[in-house]
């Protein structure tokens, strides 16, 4: 088979490719940095001839052209499994619908439950064997391709090819159309850790050990942990994570990460997608040290737990005094998604010697006034991302508390002890009213 000849036969313009979309179809745009641009623009150009086309994406960093072209939603409906910055704003305007997922299950959703008529994916150029890497968003890409009757690839030379564990590439023979494009990857600006982030990171650093296997979320606090690790004396750290973030590059290049003590994927940095700045994309480009796997491998709690001493570090929005964690909404307002926080909280605790940290500042400023992130009960409408039974360690700048094996009154005492001092007395009164406080306790 001459792969270049087959490529040439399937090469069309974006305007030609989007003719495969029919009214009533479900169309997937891919995920993270790999969501299509040229095909999105071409599909928006067909607005007047299409109706009820449903489009799915994940953490898109800019506003899709289909949304700009059809703010009345008469022709296109945009949906997202995890709201990025742009999608959050669209959701507030009623222009983006959230699709809740338990991330490690998402490939199965596509294979068994979700209808997909057309899939559009951005990929790097084809290799000499006729394969297109899925780039830094392996996630559920193969499941998408298996479920869709029509596959269209948007080939972008700026998309870094990434080495895989498995299900990390698709062959030209499986593809229906190829479109060529040239646009720069969306860059996530570095998040500068605050003073509170630094304090929380310092508390976590006190609990890290040589040989730990790390998962980090995105944000100022994980960045602070990464920076501290890269300047520490820690040795032989491993990485098994959902998202490859900028701070991993610093600690790898500083020499703290070897992966030598991992039980599985020894010496490899394991992830399912990457999203960050140029140093991240440069580092992962065709790097044999980094292995991209589908998310039903990276995020499966039972796979996570096969490594010893897994340490999961994630942020949350608020917690109540019973230990329920909300990490994805502000009341009824959806601001992100469940992501892999539940997967890694459970997986890390199952790991021998594992620890799962959920972190937050104890308070924040709202309309010029200080407000507590620790609530008597979650804000009405808030989504429970991690149930109280699964929380291991909770961290604020005021301390670290362990919640496993604690009664309701012990939980209330522990959680209130790391609340902002200004709110502790009021939280005690609320705990008494809820019947989860013993008067003999002292915070």
* Share in helix: 25-40%
In what order do the strands lie side by side in the largest sheet? 15-13-11-10-16-21-25-26
Task: Please indicate the percent range of residues in DSSP E strands (runs of 2 or more).
Answer: 15-25%
Low-confidence stretches: none
Indicate the overall shape.
globular
**CATH class (first level) name of the largest domain:** Alpha Beta
State the helix count.
Answer: 16
Evaluate the radius of gyration.
23 Å
Secondary structural class: alpha/beta
Termini separation comes to 73 Å
Please give the largest β-sheet. 8 strands, mixed
Mean pLDDT: 96
CATH architecture of the largest domain: 3-Layer(aba) Sandwich
- CATH topology group of the largest domain: Glutaconate Coenzyme A-transferase
The total number of structural domains is 2
Q: Would you report the number of β strands?
A: 26
Q: What is the name of the CATH superfamily of the largest domain?
A: Acetyl-CoA hydrolase/transferase C-terminal domain
Characterise this structure:
The protein is an alpha/beta fold and 443 residues long. It folds into two domains: 3-180, Glutaconate Coenzyme A-transferase, CATH 3.40.1080.10; 195-434, Glutaconate Coenzyme A-transferase. The chain contains 16 helices and 26 strands. β3 (76-80), α5 (85-92) and β4 form a beta-alpha-beta unit. α6 (106-113) packs parallel to α7 (141-147) and α9 runs parallel beside α10. The termini are far apart.
